[in-house]
Amino acid sequence: MIERIDHLIVAVKDLEAAEDNYKKIFGHDPVWRGEHESLGTKNSIFNFNNLYFELLAANGEGAGASLVNSSIEENGEGLAGLVFGSDDIENTKEQLSSKGYELSSLALGEGLDEDAGKKRTWQSLFLPNSITRGLFSFAIEHKTGKLALLEKFESDSVHKLDHVVINTNDAEGFIQVYEKDLGIRLALDQTVEKWGGRMLFFRLNQTTIEVIARPNEEQSKDSLWGLAWDVEDLEATHARLTQLGIEASEVKEGRKPNTLVSTIKSNTCNIPTLFIQHLDS
Predict the structure, then answer these.
(1) Among residues 112, 144, 176, which one ends one of the domains?
(2) Which end of the chain is more exposed for a tag (fewer CB within 10 A), N or C?
(3) 104 and 184 both lie in a single domain
(4) What's the domain count of the chain?
(5) Model pLDDT for residues 109-152, shown as the tens digit of each residue
């Protein structure tokens, strides 16, 4: 039903400035610069081995512009949406409907690349709050057109997303939605006695959804928090970033065995960002 994390949406005020920052951080150029005329937005897309990363800015009026503007007004620039990929969006809708969810009609969408004159089309299923619990999310099936992908990523550049971090106050409700209803595999569920919460790890398309669960008395709520990106050579990546004026912590051993990590401290559009290298065991 849900085959992958398709892409992440980042709401920004100044698309050109955000793109310039992420060209430096990722170590390569975006593969698409375009607009959604009917939605009132323009975007810049960086593509990776397991998903794509979309910088999105308002460019007029429409549902997309409203999303961007409200997200920035409430939270500032940063992560604004998590999008799931489906190979059969109609079947996804049928399965979720059979579980009792009230769903809207499928929406047709298209994007135009203003540099290359290319067009992509897709169908989207916007998910109700009973699934998203405060986090903007939808499922998408791409119909025509395709994003370019680099033939080779340099060792000092980002090549894939390692994990996305989500905060929740309702671990059991999160498991019900993501494992039972969306069909995403729960790989690990552990209690962290040090701070009295739980950590959940869901896996799909070489990507982890890491969930930090801290219970409280409020209504069930989920929110995007941060990202961790994979690089092949973290020392070389750190040197490249430093030369470009990007602030990053010193490379150190990660909490996970056989990893090195560095925290990116600037130019991220307010997104907590970690770079990670998995060492040969």
Answers:
(1) 144
(2) C
(3) no
(4) 2
(5) 999 998 888 999 999 999 999 999 999 999 999 999 999 999 99
